[in-house]
Structures are given as C-alpha cells and as structure tokens.
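All the exercises in this workshop are built on plain-text protein records. There is nothing in a record beyond a sequence line and a structure line. A learned vocabulary of local backbone shapes supplies the integers on the structure line. The question running through the whole workshop is how a given chain folds. Here is such a record, shown just as it appears in the course material:

***
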Amino acid sequence: MLAAVVLAGLVVAAGVSGRFGLAGAAMLAAISIVWLTVNGPMEGPVLVRLSATHGITGADLAGVAGLGLAALQAARARRARAST
C-alpha cells in the first residue's frame, strides 16, 4: 500500500513540480528517492543485472526518470534565476 501511495505522489509531483522552481525540483527528487527505497512490492523482472544480487527493474525506472526530470527542472530554474 505504501508503495502505491508513493508512486501516486511521484506522478503528481512530476506533473506539478515545474511550477515551483527549485523547491518543486527538490520535492520531486526527494519523492523519487523514497520511491527507489519502497518500490520492492512492485518490482518486475530484472532488466539490467548489476551483480549476482543487484539489478535494475522496471519499477526502478520511475525513480530514475523522476531524478532526471528533477535535475532538468533545477537547471531550468537556476538559469531563470540567473537571467533576472
């Protein structure tokens, strides 16, 4: 249940975080990190095996995408702040 709530929060944060500049990017990054720690019940097959006991699953990609989007939004917010 917790994983589902965090995933829903991640989707909402990804949709609205761009409106809030650096604070929105930081919130999206934080929720993405939380997702990576609680996504165990929703993990599917291992897509990329990193070692005998570790790998990247489909569920992990949501967190990675969230972190990437947060980095992009943070860079945009910093550029906008620097130009004013």
About this structure: The longest helix spans residues 58-83. The two ends are 44 Å apart (CA to CA). The chain has a mean pLDDT of 94.
